Amino acid sequence: MYYTGEHLYNIVKTNLNKIPHDIKGIIAIPRGGLFPGFVIAEHLNIPITTVDKFLENRQTCWFNESTFIKFNQINDGKLLVIDDSTDTGKSLAQTKEKLKDIQGYQFIYCVIHSSYYDNNLIVLDEDKTPGRIYEFNIFRVLPKGVITDFDGVLCKNPSYGLDLNEEKYINFILNTPPYLHVPYIDVILTSRLEKYRGYVEEWLHKNNITYNKLIMLPFNNVQEKIAEMKSGTWNEAAWKCNEYVSICQEQNLRKALVESNRDISLFIRNRVRNSIVYCTDTSELMY
User: Any idea what the CATH number is for the domain that residue 237 is in?
Assistant: First the structure.
């Protein structure tokens, strides 16, 4: 099951009634516990910290944008220790071990999802399916060796028609700042023209983006590309779909594709059995 950030936010918000009303603060287990932790802290107007920060003599925690307090100013109070999910309980057990000798607090444990029943654990949502995927950790759970789009993923999309002005377009290629960090890239699949490969590779090297292969369009110029599109002999969705299939067949692997455009994402997902496509524009995981 895949959960977007909006979906998770609504799950946490609509289940605040499951959290004891006398909670004095929140201890989030990084990184998964930070998202629900901040949602709860904001709605209940209570401070939040992380496990390690709490163990540093109960020092500074966040309260709001202008106020910081210390947890050692909260005595004899209930603190909510939260993570995103648990399948085996190992992460929670490790945290309980860290906190077992701390006196003066009552620790209440909470997760959004759990695959097992524990009477001493607050579970906000009833989905017990193992292997849940959350938007905020999507790049850590996709199969390693992803195929990724370039514009709209590794960097922002250029403005419409910018590629018609070669000088400005090359300046964009060389100097646009990186956008999303996509780990474990195998293939970069981009509709940028092959003639710009040197500039593109320079940008990738400058921004420490590692990959195995860069596939680009073989058209001589953007006018040729536009003419092929208008004649119906070429379109980006079909081209990317064919390249995606070829890569998967060549490696005999089920590969994940990270694509910015929703129409292209849907095109590939609907035509390729067992495909995995993550659309960055809409935060949709299609599989």
Answer: 3.40.50
